[in-house]
Each structure stands twice: as structure tokens, then as C-alpha cells.
Design a protein that fits this description.
heterotrimer; A: 327 residues; eight-stranded mixed sheet; four-stranded antiparallel sheet; 11 helices; B: 318 residues; MetI-like fold; globular; disordered C terminus
Chain lengths: 327, 318, 321
């Protein structure tokens, strides 16, 4: 059905339902008997309009895979990806291209995600060109997007090349590029981790303004819990492809329920960790049961079964057997 | 105490050539000048050549003299005129064959690299087969089979040289495809045609040009080889055919090689070296690692980030 | 004047020649490290901290050039040595852990081999002995015995960094220069590596120069912290003081720009403007364009370091006597 992606306010903008994706390591001739790497397993997460959900995870957690699944750049093995209510998981590429008007992706590396051969004007105009929306007011739209992204006055930047701009400015150009089609949601994959510390907050404040003024929702992917605390309304913590804890930011920070979340918080707060048994290093842990078992101080017999995500309090869920014994 | 640099107002200088930044660039300029000269000679051949190379204008086998600076060949045609007109034929065949080879090679390489899958596998097997065949016997067989005229010479040479650029371009396209700005365009909803046209092709275009220069180089040598073996168009006046007749008439056994063989041979060598110089400087520009030999630009120096990145598998820190 | 300090850097200045002119990467930088002391050098991109490390190890190549200053290590003037003889110092008495070292491990050398090679480069011992020493060294940095023969691609980021640290310690150096040793690692692994470094330092009495953009990581194990901006030192002092009672507006801004897990969520502020690139020799304070407390004098005269506490100095006109 080639229908327009309907944008109803109030509909959940992005929703993952029991999403799973594995990558098979390729052997000779493209097939092989290598074990597959489970990148994402049974993840369900929703982003409501105008809110920011922080996806926290370290390397191997699956957060970048989830970003690509959200944009349809890779196809899931199972589950649903709903954009404004419509499941596009198995949809043909042309439906995804439609959806990419409504949902955008900002990359981590501002030095790589902007083509160095194009001026800022053309970079920001590209989504308009791709979707056949070139009109007489193109320059005005580009200037507006640049100013919304914090590059003021827009005229000063519009004819520059990326190599004339700093990392922070380039990231704002990438942001302007996402804004030009008036998206409902922006997936930001570690947007500040390659920027200087003194500039990170500035970019995030601009993004906060966009949320407030334009109702744009964000899926904010990061490994920096403190940054996520500053920017996001809800936090979702991932470990080895699974969601281990989800909840309102204040709730999760005040009362982290999952041992991994607690370890992360302690590491971020004090740069200290509790002594843990030696961790298995490969993410393709075929052991089954709770993935965090081999690093967890509280591991016990029940952990041989993978814990489901269960509700601790309204809006706060955790996947852990721990509090079952002592609530 | 650190001294502040004071710059006196400069006198207006005459426009100058921008300074070459590296040895590679200097070589490239030398090569370009030499090649340019040959092209000029080729284009203005009718004006520069003292005689019509096909006309019999003197006694055969004459050694160099005032009226024939390079003597005459076995039929009494002026060798210098042959040399000058030969530039036309050899360069034209070389360029055309290279152009054809690069067009086909680029098409195959880009389609293979960008789309992957079965298409990639099939095309690359084809490329491998072509690369595995020894080129000179292949050249000979094709030439004999298809006949000896300029059109087939061009075709035969391109058939032999298209495969290597295809392979090289494919690997460049494979890496270009993963670059952030291509992924970004795809994430914006771009179709393959858009991505190829706007991002992938421009990214590999320096390499295409460098490969073209290389191909032209090889093509000229191959043409000379083919003609020398008598498999080219023996009625066309190329450098190779000049050498063919020289060899067939025993010029190598007498002093005649000095004016019949040497100048033509030198011309071929010099053109090949000129192409090599140009190719060297182009490749230095296309390959960012080699660029380290040049002075860094401010953007490269001041903009390089030194900050935190979660190690995403496959990403390389700057 | 003889100094008891292990490392004494005085008036170091290093420049780079670029197409657009001379960049003063490091300008008039002076500091010292005592035996067994850890000095943290903090700054953002382009501040010169890596160039300082490369300069003192004489690893600067054209178009870079050290134009002023002296470096005394263990009483000896390192700049007076013949350049080729520096190789005997590097990896032996001064060990360097360069940026992104964990990505630069030789992929065809196992962990044990990599460490053994460092030993063999400086000590005339039989190969077997070097391998044995490598093995025990790797275990002492937390790599289990069964992983000692692993290759870099088989090891996680944290383990690779431990291998790199073992390589640095192989020949019992008196000073370790570590450039961004925990950057790029997962935060839990960062904490583990920092704890390892702290532990090693206590056990071996190492002096360290810990370079990073992350002021909290730096202050975790440093005794003293030095903050750099635009090629110059802007503040230096005991770690706790610099982090909890910063005096220079840049340091204050840097700390205010870091989000925390406690305290009000919105209390994070950027420093306006862009990080300076160091082109040309700027008269006056390099931070002036972005400084909330800038005065007229700041753009004209470069502030020299003034004492603002016990062993704590800041280069700022605000603290004029």
C-alpha cells in the first residue's frame, strides 16, 4: 500500500515491538558455520511525541543497531518497527523512504557524515532534493533550519564548506539538515562524543529548544549516562542486545534497579567499580539465561533463566531476578 | 618573551604559478608539460612535418641530411614526418582505448561494489578471468582473429586493460559506500541513483582519473607492441609501425637504427614517462596517506579531534 | 641550580608550519614532575597537551619544530643529546603510551610477543627470559594467564589497553607519559583501568604524566593538575583544589560544562564560542574571546602565572596582586 505516512499527533512516534536482529559472521563463500552475533534481542521501546528517550549502552550493547533498525537501514529478524503507528518491519524500501521524511538520523562523526565537496547550502538542501521538494523558498527554508540549529546568522554559514567549520558547527549543520523536512523524531547516535567538552552542552541545549518549540521527539543514543540525564525524559539501559532497565530519568537515577545500571552509575559518578568476576569478552555469549550473569555480584540460580522485563513502579521496568526475592 | 610577527604591507606582485607542495606535484607538472608538447605536435602535425609521411620524397635508406633530418625509410618516406604524424596515431589510439577501458571498468567496478551480491560475484569472476589470462598472447590472438585495423586495435587493447581498473574501483566503491555521508544520504531516503551520482562517484572520481592516466600509458605501449609485431594496422603511420618496418628491414643490424629506431623509441619512452609522472602526482592526491608528504592545511591540523569515542566495531579513531 | 625534580620543563615552545602560517602549538610552557608524582594535563582539542608530550620525547618532526625551552630529566638535558640516542631513553626510562595505542597494536603479534619485543629492544637478555618477564608483567596488569598468547583482535578494548600499559612498564621506567589512556573505553572499563594505573603507581613508585580531555578522569589519579588552553598553561595546582576550587575562568567553564549524576539536571553550561586553533602568535590571553570575565587588558597583554593558593597558580589578570 503506497499511502502517505500519516502523521497523527498523539500517536507514538517510534515504537519497537519485540525487535530482534542477529548478524551471522560470514564464512567462505558467504555462508558458514560461524556463530551468529545477537545484536538486538526482544527489545520493546516507545518514544512519545515531543519526548526524549535516552538509549544507554556500551560497545556491543546493540544501541547503534537499534538506530539503524529505526531508520530501516537494516531489516530485523523478528518484531515490529512502528513509525507513527505503522509497522514497517517487512516493508519494501520505498515505504521506508517515505518514512525517512518523518524520522531522521544524526551521526556521531561530524567529519564523516558531511560530504566535504558540498557547501552548507547543498548539504542542508539534500533532503529537499531527495524528496522532490525543491521550491522557490528553498533558500529561506535552509536559512531557517540553520538558525534553528544555532548557526546564526544563517547567511554567514550557508556558503561555507565543511572544512571551514569546527566539529561543533558541523554537527549543527547535520542538525539543520535533519530539520529542513520538519521531522517528528530525530535519532541522535552519540552526537556529542566527538566534540570538545565545553561545546557539548551547547548542542544539547539547542536540541532541547527544538523539543520545546517544535515538538520534535528524540531517541538519544549514548554511553554517557550523565549526558543522558541532562537531556532525556526517560532512560533505557541496554546490555548485550537486551533492554535491562527502562524508566523515567529521575526514577532510574534515584533508584537504579538493575546491577548493570548501578555499576554504570557508580562508574560515571565516581569513576569506580565494584570488583567483579572476570567478564567474558565476546558479545556472542551462547550461555543463555541472563546475559549479565557472569559479571553480576548478585548472580544466583534463578539467573539461569533469562529475566523478563517486569514493572517495578509505574513507568519503571527492570529485567532482573533480584527484587523478586526481596522486594 | 614571544615576538609578535609584524608583516609589512606587501607590494602587489605579478600573478604567479602557485608553488608546488611536494615532489609529486613537481613531477606531475613536468609530465603534463611534456605530454602537452606531444599533444601539440600531434595536433599540428600537418604544419610541423616537413613532408607528407606517405609520400615518397627521396631515395630509400638515406641517412640524415639537411633535407631529411632523420633520413628516409625503405620506401623513401621521410622518417621525421613519420615520427610527427605517428604521434597522432599512437596518442589517439592510446587515449581512445583507455577511454573505452575506463568507461567499462568504471561501470563494472561501481555496479559490483555498490550492489554486491550475485551481480558482484559474477562480475568479479569475469574480471578475474580476464586478469588471469596473459595479456600479450591474448592481445595477439584477438588481433589476429578480429583483423588488423585501427578500430580493432582500439577494441583489442581495451579488452585487455579494462579489468584492473574495475577491480580497483570496486574496492574504492566498497569503502566509499560505508562513508558517513553516503550512509547519511541513505538515511535521508536517497535512492541508489542519487547516492551513486551525488556521493559515490564524486568520491571515487580522483581514482578514476588516475586510473585513466595509467590506462592511457599502458595503451600506448600496447599499441606500439601490437604494431611492432605487425598486428596493428600496417597502413597507419604509428610509432609502432615505424618500428615494425625498421625491424623488418634490418635496421637493427646496421647503423640505420640510430635514426630509424632510436628517435621513435625515445618518443614512446618519453611519453610513457610523462604519463607516469602525471599518474604519480594524481595518485598522491587521491590517496590521503601519501598526502602526508605535503604541508598540512590548517583544517587538517587544527580540526583534528582528540576526544572520547565509544569503540564501535570497525571504527578507526582519527 | 640543581633540581631534585624528576622532570623539569622550562619555557617550552613548539610550532608547526602550515599553508596559512605558523601555528604555536605550545607556547612558553613550564612545569615539573617529582619522583613518584602524577601530573595530569587537561585540555580540549588543539590545546597543545599532546604536543608537549611529543616535544619532551623529541618526537616532533617537520613541519613541527621545537623553537624554545629546555627539558631536564633526572638532571640531564634531553635536548642536548644527539637525537638518535633518544631511542635509548624512550621505552626504557621514559615510557610513552600514545593516543589510541590500543588500536595500534601489531595485529600479528600476541600480547606476550608485543611486550617481549619491548624488553628485547632495550635489554640484552635471552628471548625466553624476555617472554617469561612479559608473561608475569601481563598477569600483573590483570590479563589472565590463558589470554597471554591472544592476538589483539581477540582481546577487548580494556584488555588491549592493559597490554599497552604492560608494554610501557616493561623496562621499569621512572616516568610514564600516557596520552588519553582511557579515552574510547567503555566507562566501566575506564574505571577499571584507572584503578589499575593507580595501583601500579603505588606499587612501583612510578611518576606519571596523564594527559586527557576528561578532567574528572585526570583528577582521579593525579596529585597535581595542569590545565592548558591555546598552547599555554592557564592553571596548575593540587588536583583536589583545581577541580573543587578552580580559579581560572576556563577551568571553571570546563567544569561547569560537565553533566553530573547529582545536583540539578539542567546545571550544565557550554562555554560560548569555538575552541581556539592556535594560528599565529596571539597577543593577550588566548581565552579572552570566550571569557565571561574578560577585561580590556586581557586582549593586549598575556597574563603570567600568579599564585592563587598553596602551590596553585593561574595565568589570569583577575588575580593581579
Amino acid at each position: 500500500m503506497a499511502q502517505e505516512v500519516t502523521i497523527a499527533t498523539g500517536t507514538t512516534v517510534l515504537e519497537f515491538v519485540d525487535l530482534s536482529k542477529s548478524f551471522r559472521a560470514r564464512g567462505v563463500l558467504g555462508k558458514g558455520r560461524r556463530p551468529s552475533i545477537v545484536a538486538v534481542e526482544d527489545v520493546s521501546l516507545a518514544v512519545e511525541p515531543g519526548t526524549a528517550v535516552g538509549l544507554i549502552g556500551e560497545s556491543g550493547s546493540g544501541k547503534s543497531t537499534l538506530a539503524r533498525l529505526a531508520l530501516g537501514l537494516i531489516k530485523p529478524d523478528a518484531g515490529e518497527v512502528r513509525i507513527t503507528g505503522r509497522d514497517l518491519a517487512g516493508a519494501p524500501e520505498r515505504h521506508w523512504r517515505e518514512a525517512r521524511r518523518v524520522i531522521h538520523l544524526i551521526f556521531q562523526d561530524p567529519y564523516d557524515s558531511l560530504s566535504t565537496r558540498m557547501r552548507v547550502h547543498d548539504l542542508v538542501a539534500e533532503p529537499l532534493v531527495i524528496h522532490g521538494m525543491e521550491g522557490t523558498d528553498r533558500r529561506a527554508r535552509i536559512l531557517a533550519a540553520l538558525e534553528q540549529a544555532g548557526l546564526r546568522p544563517g547567511e554567514e554559514y550557508i556558503d561555507r564548506f565543511p572544512h571551514e567549520l569546527s566539529g561543533g558547527q558541523r554537527q549543527r549543520v547535520a542538525l539543520a539538515r535533519s530539520l529542513v523536512l520538519e521531522p517528528r523524531l530525530i535519532v541522535a547516535d552519540e552526537p556529542t562524543s566527538m566534540l570538545d567538552v565545553s561545546l557539548r552542552a551547547g548542542l544539547l541545549r539547542t536540541m532541547l529548544e527544538l523539543r520545546a518549540d517544535h515538538g520534535i521527539a528524540f531517541l538519544f543514543i549514548t554511553h554517557d549516562l550523565a549526558l543522558a540525564r541532562f537531556f532525556c525524559d526517560r532512560l533505557a539501559v541496554m546490555f548485550r542486545g537486551r533492554l535491562v532497565e527502562v524508566g523515567d530519568t529521575d526514577a532510574v537515577v534515584a533508584r537504579p534497579a538493575h546491577p548493570y545500571t548501578r555499576a554504570l552509575m557508580q562508574a560515571v559518578r565516581d569513576l569506580e567499580v565494584p570488583e567483579a568476576p572476570h567478564a567474558a569478552t565476546t558479545p556472542s555469549n551462547p550461555g543463555g539465561g541472563c546475559q549479565y550473569r557472569d559479571r553480576c555480584r548478585f548472580a544466583h540460580d534463578a539467573c539461569a533463566d533469562e529475566p523478563p522485563l517486569r514493572s517495578l513502579a509505574p513507568g519503571h521496568s527492570v529485567a532482573c531476578h533480584l527484587d523478586e526475592k526481596n522486594p | 618573551m614571544t615576538a609578535t610577527t609584524i608583516t609589512a604591507p606587501r607590494r602587489r606582485r605579478l600573478p604567479q604559478w602557485p608553488r608546488a607542495h611536494s615532489a609529486g606535484e613537481r613531477l606531475g607538472r613536468i609530465g603534463a608539460v611534456i605530454l602537452g608538447l606531444f599533444v601539440v605536435v600531434a595536433v599540428f602535425a600537418p604544419v610541423l612535418a616537413p613532408y607528407d609521411p606517405k609520400a615518397q620524397v627521396g631515395l630509400p635508406y638515406q641517412s640524415p641530411s639537411g633535407s631529411h633530418l632523420l633520413g628516409t625509410n625503405d620506401i623513401g618516406q621521410d622518417i621525421l614526418s613519420e615520427l610527427i604524424y605517428g604521434a597522432r596515431v599512437s596518442l589517439a589510439i592510446g587515449f581512445l582505448a583507455a577511454l573505452l577501458a575506463i568507461v567499462v571498468g568504471t561501470l563494472v567496478g561501481v555496479v559490483s561494489g555498490y550492489f554486491g551480491g550475485l551481480v558482484d560475484t559474477l562480475l568479479m569472476r569475469f574480471v578475474d578471468i580476464t586478469l588471469a589470462l596473459p595479456f600479450l598472447p591474448l592481445l595477439i590472438v584477438l588481433a589476429v582473429f578480429l583483423g588488423r585495423n585501427i578500430r580493432t586495435t582500439v577494441l583489442v587493447i581495451s579488452v585487455v586493460i579494462w579489468a584492473r581498473p574495475a577491480r580497483i574501483l570496486r574496492s574504492q566503491v566498497l569503502s566509499a559506500r560505508e562513508r558517513g555521508f553516503v550512509q547519511a544520504a541513505r538515511a535521508m531516503g536517497g535512492r541508489p541513483a542519487h547516492l551513486l551520482r551525488r556521493h559515490v562517484l564524486p568520491a571515487v572520481s580522483p581514482l578514476i582519473i588516475a586510473q585513466f592516466v595509467r590506462a592511457a600509458n599502458i595503451a600506448i605501449l600496447l599499441e606500439a607492441s601490437l604494431s611492432f609485431l605487425g598486428l596493428g594496422d600496417v597502413t597507419a603511420k604509428s610509432w609502432g609501425t615505424t618500428l615494425y618496418y625498421a625491424s623488418a628491414r634490418g635496421a637493427f643490424l646496421t647503423r640505420a637504427w640510430l635514426w630509424w629506431v632510436l628517435p621513435t623509441g625515445l618518443a614512446i619512452s618519453v611519453v610513457v614517462v610523462a604519463f607516469a609522472f602525471i599518474g604519480y602526482s594524481l595518485e598522491e592526491r587521491a590517496d590521503p596517506r601519501l598526502r602526508a608528504r605535503r604541508l598540512p592545511t590548517l583544517a587538517q591540523f587544527g580540526g583534528a579531534p582528540t576526544l572520547a569515542m565509544t569503540p564501535i566495531p570497525g571504527k578507526v579513531l582519527p | 641550580m640543581t633540581s631534585t625534580r624528576l622532570l623539569e620543563v622550562d619555557g617550552l615552545s613548539t610550532v608547526y608550519q602550515t599553508e596559512r602560517g605558523t601555528v604555536w602549538a605550545v607556547q612558553d610552557v613550564s612545569f615539573g614532575i617529582e619522583k613518584g608524582e602524577v601530573l595530569g594535563i587537561v585540555g580540549e582539542s588543539g590545546c597543545g597537551k599532546t604536543t608537549v608530550a611529543m616535544s619532551l620525547l623529541r618526537l616532533i618532526k617537520p613541519p613541527g619544530k621545537i623553537v624554545a625551552g629546555s627539558v631536564r630529566f633526572d638532571g640531564e638535558n634531553l635536548f642536548a643529546r644527539r637525537r638518535a640516542t633518544m631511542r635509548a631513553v624512550r621505552g626504557d626510562r621514559i615510557a610513552m603510551v600514545p593516543q589510541a595505542a590500543m588500536h595500534a597494536l601489531d595485529p600479528v603479534c600476541s600480547a606476550a610477543t608485543s611486550v617481549a619485543e619491548v624488553i628485547l629492544a632495550h635489554r640484552d637478555v635471552p628471548r625466553k627470559q624476555a617472554k617469561a618477564s612479559a608473561s608475569s608483567l601481563l598477569q600483573s596488569v590483570g590479563i589472565p594467564e590463558e589470554r597471554i598468547g591472544s592476538y589483539p583482535h581477540e582481546l577487548s578494548g580494556g584488555m588491549r589497553q592493559r597490554v599497552v600499559i604492560a608494554m610501557a612498564l616493561a623496562n621499569d621506567p621512572s616516568l610514564v607519559v600516557a596520552d588519553e589512556p582511557v579515552t574510547g573505553l567503555d566507562v566501566i572499563v575506564q574505571a577499571q583501568v584507572l584503578s589499575l594505573l593507580s595501583d601500579l603507581r603505588k606499587r612501583l613508585g612510578l611518576a606519571m604524566m596523564f594527559i586527557s580531555h576528561d578532567i574528572r578522569a585526570v583528577s582521579k589519579i593525579s596529585d597535581r593538575v595542569m590545565v592548558m588552553y591555546g598552547g599555554r598553561v592557564v592553571e596548575e595546582g593540587p588536583a583536589a583544589e583545581v577541580v573543587h576550587a578552580p580559579k581560572h575562568p576556563y577551568t571553571q567553564g570546563l567544569l561547569a560544562a560537565m553533566p553530573t549524576m547529582d545536583g540539578p539536571r539542567g546545571d550544565v553550561h557550554s562555554i560560548p564560542g569555538e575552541v581556539v586553533s592556535g594560528l599565529g602568535d596571539v597577543a593577550g590571553c588566548p581565552f579572552e574571546p570566550r571569557c565571561p570575565s574578560a577585561m580590556d587588558v586581557c586582549s593586549q597583554v598575556h597574563p603570567s602565572a600568579r599564585s592563587v593558593g598553596n602551590g596553585h597558580g593561574a595565568a589570569c589578570h583577575l588575580y593581579e596582586e
